[in-house]
Design a protein that fits this description.
It is a single chain. By secondary structure, this protein is α/β, with parallel strands linked by helices. It has 2 domains: about 110 residues, DNAb Helicase, Chain A; about 260 residues, 3-Layer(aba) Sandwich (Rossmann fold). Helix content is about 45%, strand content about 10%. Strands 3-2-4-5-1-6-7-8-9 form a 9-stranded mixed beta sheet, sandwiched between helices. Helix 8 packs across helix 15 and helix 11 packs across helix 12. Keywords: ATP-binding, DNA replication, DNA-binding, Helicase, Hydrolase, Isomerase, Methyltransferase, Nucleotide-binding, Plasmid, Transferase. This is DNA 5'-3' helicase. Its EC number is 5.6.2.3.
Protein backbone atom coordinates (compact mmCIF):
# COMPACT_ATOMS: atom_id res chain seq x y z
CA UNK A 1 0.00 0.00 0.00
CA UNK A 2 1.98 3.01 -1.25
CA UNK A 3 2.14 5.82 1.30
CA UNK A 4 1.80 8.46 -1.42
CA UNK A 5 -1.72 7.25 -2.30
CA UNK A 6 -3.12 7.64 1.20
CA UNK A 7 -5.40 10.58 1.80
CA UNK A 8 -5.81 9.96 5.50
CA UNK A 9 -4.54 11.34 8.78
CA UNK A 10 -0.82 11.71 9.50
CA UNK A 11 -1.07 8.81 11.93
CA UNK A 12 -2.43 6.57 9.17
CA UNK A 13 0.42 7.59 6.89
CA UNK A 14 2.93 6.82 9.63
CA UNK A 15 1.33 3.39 10.27
CA UNK A 16 1.40 2.55 6.55
CA UNK A 17 5.07 3.51 6.34
CA UNK A 18 5.85 1.45 9.45
CA UNK A 19 4.14 -1.58 7.95
CA UNK A 20 6.08 -1.19 4.69
CA UNK A 21 9.41 -1.07 6.53
CA UNK A 22 8.68 -4.02 8.80
CA UNK A 23 7.44 -6.04 5.81
CA UNK A 24 10.70 -5.42 3.99
CA UNK A 25 12.69 -6.45 7.06
CA UNK A 26 10.65 -9.67 7.37
CA UNK A 27 11.61 -10.53 3.77
CA UNK A 28 15.32 -9.83 4.28
CA UNK A 29 17.89 -12.19 2.81
CA UNK A 30 21.67 -12.43 3.01
CA UNK A 31 21.95 -10.41 -0.19
CA UNK A 32 19.19 -7.95 0.69
CA UNK A 33 19.45 -6.28 4.11
CA UNK A 34 16.89 -3.48 4.60
CA UNK A 35 17.35 -3.61 8.40
CA UNK A 36 20.69 -1.82 8.26
CA UNK A 37 19.21 0.92 6.06
CA UNK A 38 16.25 1.43 8.40
CA UNK A 39 18.50 1.51 11.47
CA UNK A 40 20.40 4.48 10.04
CA UNK A 41 17.25 6.56 10.50
CA UNK A 42 15.17 4.87 13.16
CA UNK A 43 16.07 4.50 16.80
CA UNK A 44 15.42 1.20 18.53
CA UNK A 45 12.53 2.65 20.49
CA UNK A 46 10.30 5.69 20.39
CA UNK A 47 9.93 6.24 16.64
CA UNK A 48 7.05 3.80 16.13
CA UNK A 49 3.44 4.98 16.37
CA UNK A 50 1.90 1.53 16.95
CA UNK A 51 3.25 -0.28 20.03
CA UNK A 52 3.11 -3.71 18.39
CA UNK A 53 5.15 -2.37 15.46
CA UNK A 54 7.79 -1.26 17.94
CA UNK A 55 7.72 -4.72 19.54
CA UNK A 56 8.31 -6.37 16.16
CA UNK A 57 11.08 -3.89 15.33
CA UNK A 58 12.78 -4.60 18.65
CA UNK A 59 12.80 -8.32 17.84
CA UNK A 60 14.18 -7.64 14.36
CA UNK A 61 16.98 -5.45 15.74
CA UNK A 62 17.84 -8.08 18.36
CA UNK A 63 18.17 -10.78 15.71
CA UNK A 64 20.08 -8.52 13.32
CA UNK A 65 22.59 -7.53 16.01
CA UNK A 66 23.34 -11.25 16.55
CA UNK A 67 23.86 -11.84 12.83
CA UNK A 68 20.70 -13.97 12.55
CA UNK A 69 18.06 -13.85 9.77
CA UNK A 70 15.06 -11.58 10.29
CA UNK A 71 12.51 -13.52 8.28
CA UNK A 72 9.02 -14.30 9.56
CA UNK A 73 9.94 -17.68 11.17
CA UNK A 74 12.90 -16.24 13.11
CA UNK A 75 11.00 -13.15 14.28
CA UNK A 76 8.10 -15.37 15.32
CA UNK A 77 10.51 -17.53 17.33
CA UNK A 78 12.10 -14.46 18.98
CA UNK A 79 8.71 -13.02 19.95
CA UNK A 80 7.61 -16.38 21.29
CA UNK A 81 10.79 -16.49 23.39
CA UNK A 82 10.07 -13.07 24.91
CA UNK A 83 6.38 -13.87 25.42
CA UNK A 84 5.22 -11.10 23.08
CA UNK A 85 3.95 -13.10 20.10
CA UNK A 86 0.27 -13.01 21.06
CA UNK A 87 0.53 -9.31 21.93
CA UNK A 88 1.41 -8.42 18.33
CA UNK A 89 -1.25 -10.68 16.75
CA UNK A 90 0.72 -13.88 16.25
CA UNK A 91 2.06 -15.49 13.10
CA UNK A 92 -0.91 -14.29 11.07
CA UNK A 93 -0.11 -10.63 11.79
CA UNK A 94 3.54 -11.12 10.84
CA UNK A 95 2.52 -12.74 7.57
CA UNK A 96 0.14 -9.90 6.75
CA UNK A 97 2.84 -7.31 7.44
CA UNK A 98 5.29 -9.20 5.21
CA UNK A 99 2.78 -8.98 2.35
CA UNK A 100 2.86 -5.17 2.53
CA UNK A 101 6.63 -4.83 2.17
CA UNK A 102 8.06 -1.93 0.24
CA UNK A 103 10.96 -2.33 -2.20
CA UNK A 104 14.59 -2.09 -1.11
CA UNK A 105 15.04 1.37 -2.62
CA UNK A 106 12.04 2.68 -0.65
CA UNK A 107 13.12 1.57 2.84
CA UNK A 108 15.16 4.68 3.62
CA UNK A 109 12.41 6.96 2.30
CA UNK A 110 9.74 5.31 4.44
CA UNK A 111 12.04 5.30 7.47
CA UNK A 112 12.44 9.06 7.14
CA UNK A 113 8.64 9.42 7.04
CA UNK A 114 8.27 7.36 10.23
CA UNK A 115 11.04 9.27 11.97
CA UNK A 116 9.62 12.61 10.85
CA UNK A 117 6.18 11.85 12.28
CA UNK A 118 7.81 10.64 15.51
CA UNK A 119 9.60 13.98 15.85
CA UNK A 120 6.32 15.76 15.17
CA UNK A 121 4.65 13.80 17.98
CA UNK A 122 7.51 14.63 20.36
CA UNK A 123 7.15 18.30 19.43
CA UNK A 124 3.42 18.21 20.11
CA UNK A 125 3.94 16.41 23.42
CA UNK A 126 6.55 19.00 24.44
CA UNK A 127 4.12 21.81 23.68
CA UNK A 128 1.45 20.12 25.80
CA UNK A 129 3.90 19.72 28.69
CA UNK A 130 4.87 23.34 28.30
CA UNK A 131 1.24 24.42 28.61
CA UNK A 132 0.73 22.18 31.64
CA UNK A 133 3.83 23.58 33.31
CA UNK A 134 2.74 27.16 32.59
CA UNK A 135 -0.47 26.53 34.52
CA UNK A 136 1.33 25.08 37.54
CA UNK A 137 4.56 27.07 37.82
CA UNK A 138 4.84 29.78 40.45
CA UNK A 139 5.80 33.33 39.36
CA UNK A 140 9.26 33.12 40.95
CA UNK A 141 10.19 30.10 38.81
CA UNK A 142 8.98 31.36 35.42
CA UNK A 143 12.49 31.82 34.01
CA UNK A 144 13.49 28.30 35.04
CA UNK A 145 10.36 26.84 33.46
CA UNK A 146 10.96 28.71 30.19
CA UNK A 147 14.61 27.62 30.10
CA UNK A 148 13.65 23.97 30.68
CA UNK A 149 11.03 24.15 27.91
CA UNK A 150 13.51 25.77 25.53
CA UNK A 151 16.07 23.07 26.29
CA UNK A 152 13.51 20.36 25.51
CA UNK A 153 12.55 21.97 22.20
CA UNK A 154 16.19 22.43 21.23
CA UNK A 155 16.85 18.77 22.03
CA UNK A 156 14.05 17.79 19.65
CA UNK A 157 15.33 20.18 16.99
CA UNK A 158 18.85 18.76 17.29
CA UNK A 159 17.48 15.31 16.37
CA UNK A 160 20.26 13.32 17.99
CA UNK A 161 19.20 10.10 16.24
CA UNK A 162 20.63 11.47 13.02
CA UNK A 163 24.32 10.69 12.54
CA UNK A 164 24.99 13.92 10.57
CA UNK A 165 27.89 12.27 8.77
CA UNK A 166 29.38 10.87 11.98
CA UNK A 167 29.29 7.31 10.61
CA UNK A 168 31.13 6.21 7.50
CA UNK A 169 34.12 4.44 6.01
CA UNK A 170 37.43 5.71 7.39
CA UNK A 171 39.02 6.28 4.01
CA UNK A 172 36.19 8.46 2.70
CA UNK A 173 37.32 11.50 4.68
CA UNK A 174 41.05 10.83 4.74
CA UNK A 175 42.02 13.00 1.77
CA UNK A 176 40.15 16.01 3.16
CA UNK A 177 41.80 15.46 6.53
CA UNK A 178 45.26 15.41 4.91
CA UNK A 179 44.50 18.70 3.17
CA UNK A 180 43.45 20.16 6.51
CA UNK A 181 46.81 19.29 8.07
CA UNK A 182 48.44 21.94 5.90
CA UNK A 183 46.57 24.61 7.85
CA UNK A 184 47.67 25.58 11.35
CA UNK A 185 45.00 24.59 13.85
CA UNK A 186 43.70 27.69 15.62
CA UNK A 187 42.28 27.61 19.12
CA UNK A 188 38.60 28.47 19.48
CA UNK A 189 39.37 30.52 22.60
CA UNK A 190 42.39 32.02 24.37
CA UNK A 191 43.35 32.51 28.01
CA UNK A 192 45.46 35.65 27.56
CA UNK A 193 48.39 33.94 29.34
CA UNK A 194 51.15 33.42 26.77
CA UNK A 195 52.70 30.18 28.01
CA UNK A 196 49.34 28.64 28.84
CA UNK A 197 47.95 29.43 25.38
CA UNK A 198 51.05 27.82 23.84
CA UNK A 199 50.49 24.58 25.78
CA UNK A 200 46.68 24.46 25.95
CA UNK A 201 44.77 24.57 22.67
CA UNK A 202 41.10 25.09 23.50
CA UNK A 203 39.24 23.52 20.59
CA UNK A 204 35.50 23.49 19.83
CA UNK A 205 33.67 21.04 22.09
CA UNK A 206 36.38 21.02 24.78
CA UNK A 207 35.67 21.06 28.52
CA UNK A 208 38.45 22.66 30.61
CA UNK A 209 38.51 22.46 34.41
CA UNK A 210 40.24 25.14 36.50
CA UNK A 211 40.44 23.61 39.96
CA UNK A 212 41.88 24.63 43.27
CA UNK A 213 41.30 25.02 46.97
CA UNK A 214 39.46 28.19 48.15
CA UNK A 215 41.34 31.50 47.71
CA UNK A 216 43.74 30.08 45.12
CA UNK A 217 42.52 32.49 42.43
CA UNK A 218 40.09 30.42 40.36
CA UNK A 219 37.63 33.28 39.86
CA UNK A 220 40.42 35.79 39.18
CA UNK A 221 41.93 33.49 36.57
CA UNK A 222 38.72 32.58 34.76
CA UNK A 223 37.44 36.15 34.75
CA UNK A 224 40.77 37.19 33.27
CA UNK A 225 40.37 34.51 30.60
CA UNK A 226 36.90 35.86 29.83
CA UNK A 227 38.22 39.40 29.42
CA UNK A 228 41.18 38.33 27.26
CA UNK A 229 39.01 36.16 25.04
CA UNK A 230 36.35 38.86 24.61
CA UNK A 231 39.06 41.48 23.92
CA UNK A 232 40.19 39.30 21.00
CA UNK A 233 36.72 39.68 19.46
CA UNK A 234 35.49 36.21 20.38
CA UNK A 235 32.03 35.95 22.01
CA UNK A 236 32.29 35.05 25.68
CA UNK A 237 29.67 34.05 28.24
CA UNK A 238 30.20 33.97 32.01
CA UNK A 239 27.82 32.17 34.37
CA UNK A 240 28.70 33.64 37.76
CA UNK A 241 26.93 31.45 40.29
CA UNK A 242 29.13 32.26 43.29
CA UNK A 243 29.49 36.04 42.87
CA UNK A 244 26.83 38.65 42.19
CA UNK A 245 26.79 41.42 39.61
CA UNK A 246 28.24 44.09 41.90
CA UNK A 247 31.29 42.04 42.88
CA UNK A 248 31.98 40.79 39.36
CA UNK A 249 31.72 44.29 37.88
CA UNK A 250 34.18 45.65 40.42
CA UNK A 251 36.59 42.80 39.67
CA UNK A 252 36.39 43.53 35.93
CA UNK A 253 37.04 47.24 36.50
CA UNK A 254 39.93 46.50 38.84
CA UNK A 255 41.53 44.03 36.44
CA UNK A 256 41.23 46.14 33.29
CA UNK A 257 41.90 49.54 34.87
CA UNK A 258 44.53 48.56 37.44
CA UNK A 259 42.50 50.13 40.22
CA UNK A 260 42.80 48.54 43.66
CA UNK A 261 39.85 46.22 44.19
CA UNK A 262 39.36 47.31 47.78
CA UNK A 263 38.92 50.92 46.58
CA UNK A 264 36.02 49.85 44.37
CA UNK A 265 34.49 47.61 47.01
CA UNK A 266 34.49 50.46 49.54
CA UNK A 267 33.39 53.11 47.02
CA UNK A 268 32.95 56.85 47.68
CA UNK A 269 36.08 58.77 48.75
CA UNK A 270 38.14 55.56 48.59
CA UNK A 271 38.10 55.88 44.77
CA UNK A 272 40.72 58.50 43.94
CA UNK A 273 40.83 60.89 41.00
CA UNK A 274 43.56 58.74 39.49
CA UNK A 275 41.29 55.71 39.82
CA UNK A 276 38.44 57.49 38.02
CA UNK A 277 40.78 58.50 35.21
CA UNK A 278 41.99 54.94 34.70
CA UNK A 279 38.45 53.60 34.71
CA UNK A 280 37.31 56.22 32.18
CA UNK A 281 40.08 55.16 29.79
CA UNK A 282 38.84 51.55 29.82
CA UNK A 283 35.07 52.14 29.69
CA UNK A 284 34.73 52.43 25.86
CA UNK A 285 36.42 49.05 25.36
CA UNK A 286 34.41 47.40 28.13
CA UNK A 287 31.11 48.72 26.78
CA UNK A 288 31.67 47.25 23.29
CA UNK A 289 33.30 43.98 24.33
CA UNK A 290 31.47 40.78 23.18
CA UNK A 291 31.09 39.67 26.79
CA UNK A 292 27.80 38.42 28.22
CA UNK A 293 27.18 37.86 31.93
CA UNK A 294 24.59 35.60 33.56
CA UNK A 295 24.03 35.89 37.31
CA UNK A 296 21.16 33.38 37.45
CA UNK A 297 21.54 31.58 40.81
CA UNK A 298 20.15 28.26 39.59
CA UNK A 299 22.15 27.27 36.52
CA UNK A 300 21.42 24.00 34.72
CA UNK A 301 22.91 22.46 31.54
CA UNK A 302 19.61 23.27 29.81
CA UNK A 303 19.97 26.96 30.65
CA UNK A 304 23.59 26.95 29.46
CA UNK A 305 22.49 25.38 26.16
CA UNK A 306 19.81 28.06 25.76
CA UNK A 307 22.30 30.86 26.36
CA UNK A 308 24.84 29.34 23.93
CA UNK A 309 22.29 28.95 21.15
CA UNK A 310 21.13 32.52 21.71
CA UNK A 311 24.68 33.83 21.30
CA UNK A 312 25.26 31.68 18.23
CA UNK A 313 22.19 33.26 16.65
CA UNK A 314 23.41 36.75 17.58
CA UNK A 315 27.09 36.42 16.68
CA UNK A 316 27.30 33.46 14.32
CA UNK A 317 29.99 31.89 16.54
CA UNK A 318 30.00 29.44 19.41
CA UNK A 319 31.16 31.27 22.57
CA UNK A 320 33.67 30.49 25.24
CA UNK A 321 31.52 29.65 28.27
CA UNK A 322 32.83 30.09 31.81
CA UNK A 323 30.99 28.55 34.76
CA UNK A 324 31.99 29.62 38.27
CA UNK A 325 31.67 27.01 39.60
CA UNK A 326 30.51 23.60 38.38
CA UNK A 327 29.71 22.00 41.76
CA UNK A 328 27.08 24.72 42.32
CA UNK A 329 25.15 23.77 39.17
CA UNK A 330 21.83 21.95 39.26
CA UNK A 331 20.50 19.24 36.97
CA UNK A 332 17.58 19.94 34.64
CA UNK A 333 15.47 17.37 36.48
CA UNK A 334 14.84 18.26 40.12
CA UNK A 335 15.53 15.20 42.24
CA UNK A 336 15.73 15.84 45.99
CA UNK A 337 17.09 12.34 46.59
CA UNK A 338 20.02 12.78 44.22
CA UNK A 339 23.41 12.77 45.94
CA UNK A 340 26.01 15.46 45.27
CA UNK A 341 28.13 12.85 43.50
CA UNK A 342 25.29 11.85 41.17
CA UNK A 343 24.27 15.48 40.56
CA UNK A 344 27.78 16.62 39.61
CA UNK A 345 28.29 13.51 37.46
CA UNK A 346 25.07 14.21 35.55
CA UNK A 347 25.95 17.89 35.14
CA UNK A 348 29.41 16.97 33.84
CA UNK A 349 28.03 14.53 31.26
CA UNK A 350 25.41 17.02 30.07
CA UNK A 351 27.98 19.81 29.72
CA UNK A 352 30.20 17.51 27.68
CA UNK A 353 27.32 16.67 25.34
CA UNK A 354 26.23 20.26 24.85
CA UNK A 355 29.83 21.39 24.22
CA UNK A 356 30.12 18.79 21.47
CA UNK A 357 26.68 19.64 20.08
CA UNK A 358 27.24 23.41 19.93
CA UNK A 359 31.01 23.63 19.36
CA UNK A 360 31.42 25.85 22.42
CA UNK A 361 34.46 25.70 24.70
CA UNK A 362 33.36 25.39 28.33
CA UNK A 363 35.74 26.47 31.09
CA UNK A 364 34.57 25.40 34.54
CA UNK A 365 35.86 26.37 37.95
CA UNK A 366 35.89 23.40 40.31
CA UNK A 367 36.62 22.95 43.98
CA UNK A 368 39.23 20.49 45.25
CA UNK A 369 38.88 18.44 48.40
CA UNK A 370 41.31 18.74 51.35
CA UNK A 371 43.60 16.00 50.06
CA UNK A 372 46.38 18.40 49.05
CA UNK A 373 46.48 20.01 52.49
CA UNK A 374 47.60 16.71 54.03
CA UNK A 375 50.27 16.22 51.36
CA UNK A 376 53.86 17.40 51.59
CA UNK A 377 54.24 20.64 49.69
CA UNK A 378 50.42 21.03 49.56
CA UNK A 379 50.57 20.50 45.78
CA UNK A 380 47.14 19.46 44.39
CA UNK A 381 46.50 16.43 42.19
CA UNK A 382 43.77 15.63 39.68
CA UNK A 383 42.35 13.03 42.06
CA UNK A 384 41.52 15.86 44.49
CA UNK A 385 38.57 17.00 42.35
CA UNK A 386 35.60 17.10 44.67
CA UNK A 387 32.24 15.29 44.35
CA UNK A 388 32.78 13.37 41.11
CA UNK A 389 35.38 11.47 39.11
CA UNK A 390 33.22 12.24 36.06
CA UNK A 391 34.71 15.75 35.97
CA UNK A 392 38.18 14.29 35.41
CA UNK A 393 36.89 11.89 32.77
CA UNK A 394 34.95 14.46 30.72
CA UNK A 395 37.56 17.23 30.78
CA UNK A 396 39.86 17.76 27.82
CA UNK A 397 42.16 19.78 30.07
CA UNK A 398 42.59 20.24 33.81
CA UNK A 399 44.43 23.19 35.34
CA UNK A 400 45.23 22.92 39.05
CA UNK A 401 46.00 26.20 40.85
CA UNK A 402 48.63 26.27 43.58
CA UNK A 403 50.21 29.12 45.55
CA UNK A 404 53.08 28.42 47.88
CA UNK A 405 52.53 31.75 49.65
CA UNK A 406 48.99 30.69 50.56
CA UNK A 407 50.52 28.25 53.05
CA UNK A 408 53.86 29.99 53.73
CA UNK A 409 53.44 33.80 53.66
CA UNK A 410 57.23 34.31 53.90
CA UNK A 411 57.83 32.05 50.88
CA UNK A 412 60.50 33.23 48.42
CA UNK A 413 57.88 32.57 45.74
CA UNK A 414 55.44 35.14 47.13
CA UNK A 415 53.32 36.61 44.36
CA UNK A 416 53.63 33.54 42.15
CA UNK A 417 50.92 31.05 41.14
CA UNK A 418 51.55 27.67 39.56
CA UNK A 419 49.14 26.53 36.85
CA UNK A 420 49.59 22.77 36.87
CA UNK A 421 48.31 21.43 33.55
CA UNK A 422 47.70 17.90 34.83
CA UNK A 423 45.59 16.74 31.87
CA UNK A 424 45.84 18.04 28.33
CA UNK A 425 44.42 16.06 25.42
CA UNK A 426 45.56 18.70 22.93
CA UNK A 427 49.15 19.15 24.12
CA UNK A 428 51.73 18.51 26.82
CA UNK A 429 51.23 18.38 30.57
CA UNK A 430 53.40 20.91 32.36
CA UNK A 431 53.50 23.55 35.08
CA UNK A 432 53.31 27.21 34.12
CA UNK A 433 54.21 29.94 36.59
CA UNK A 434 52.36 33.26 36.48
CA UNK A 435 52.17 36.31 38.73
CA UNK A 436 49.08 36.82 40.83
CA UNK A 437 47.92 40.37 41.46
CA UNK A 438 44.87 39.79 43.61
CA UNK A 439 44.67 43.46 44.57
CA UNK A 440 43.69 43.88 40.89
CA UNK A 441 41.85 40.54 40.84
CA UNK A 442 43.95 39.07 38.06
CA UNK A 443 46.78 36.77 37.00
CA UNK A 444 49.50 37.95 34.63
CA UNK A 445 52.42 36.56 32.67
CA UNK A 446 55.60 36.89 34.72
CA UNK A 447 57.00 39.32 32.14
CA UNK A 448 53.98 41.61 32.62
CA UNK A 449 53.85 41.79 36.39
CA UNK A 450 55.91 44.99 36.52
CA UNK A 451 54.12 46.85 33.72
CA UNK A 452 54.11 50.67 34.15
CA UNK A 453 51.12 52.52 35.51
CA UNK A 454 48.59 53.66 32.97
Amino acid sequence: MPVQQLEESPDAVSVAAETSILGACLLATAAYDPVAAAMQVLSKEGDWYRPHHETIWRAIVTLHSKGKPTGVPMVESELRRTGELNKIGGFVQLSQIAQQACTSVEVMHYAEIVHGYARLRRYQEALVRGMQTSRQVDPVSVNEAIAAHQAELEHIAADESSDDGLFGRFGDGLEAHMDGLETTLEAAAITGLTDLDAALKMLPGNIIMVAGRPAMGKSAMTLGVALANAASGRPTLVHSIEMGKHEVTNRVLASKSRVALHHLMEGGPAITESDWTRIARRLPDLETMPLWMDYTPRVTPGLVRTRINSLIRQTGKAPLVIIDYVQLMHTDQRNPRQSNYDRVSEVSRELKLLAEDTGAVILCCAQLNRGSEHREGKVPQTSDLRDSGQLEQDASGIILLHRDDAYTPESPRAGESDLILSKNRNGPTCTITVAHQFHYSRLRDMSQQDEPNM
